Amino acid sequence: MAIIDASDLSRIRFEHAVSKIVFCSGTFDIPHVAHALFLEDCKRLGDILVVCVGGESVLRDRKPGRPVMSEKIRLGMINFLKPVDYCYLNIVSTPEDPLAALAHAFENLRPDIYVVKDETFDMDARRELCARFNVQIQIMHRDFGTKDELRAASTSGIIERIRNA
Question: Using CA atoms, how far apart are residues 117 and 153, in angstroms rounded to an integer?
Fold first, then answer.
């Protein structure tokens, strides 16, 4: 497990030239069991798992009042999780171009598989980037139970329960 810089992605690909690299990204605000299970599922798809953790500037724009945890803490927490081989902070994306880090990762890391959750924003743009860089997209579905149980297991659901406590 290692925290890297976005500039290290080409080196990671070079060092793991014959490995199947899986890439995913996310906010990971208040890391919880659903995040850990998602990353575990991602790792099962390949040999090396590289995770991009959302930077604060884009998150503030997309999710008012967030993130709860600083980017440094979120990056460190993701790095501690067993399935993660490499993780780095998204310093490439901007509120005007929230998928810039994805294009950067595809161009430099050249992952074999890109994993997203089914409720991810801008799916059409993500699919277009995958096609342009010849990256297989894997949409991850995980059933934790009812829709209410799924909501309760999300960061937003956890925050809501804490506010109502």
Answer: 14
Please give the helix or strand (H or E) that residue 6 lies within, else none.
none
* pLDDT for the residue numbered 144: 58
pLDDT at residue 149, rounded to an integer: 57
The tokens for 163 are: 């506010």
User: For residues 68 and 30, is the Cβ–Cβ distance under 8 A?
Assistant: yes
Closest by CA position to 52, among listed 96, 99, 118: 99
DSSP sequence for 11-66: HHHHHTTTS-EEEEEE---S--HHHHHHHHHHHTTSSEEEEEEPPHHHHHHHSTT-
pTM above 0.70, yes or no: yes
The residue ranges of the chain whose pLDDT is under 70 are 119, 142-159, 161-163
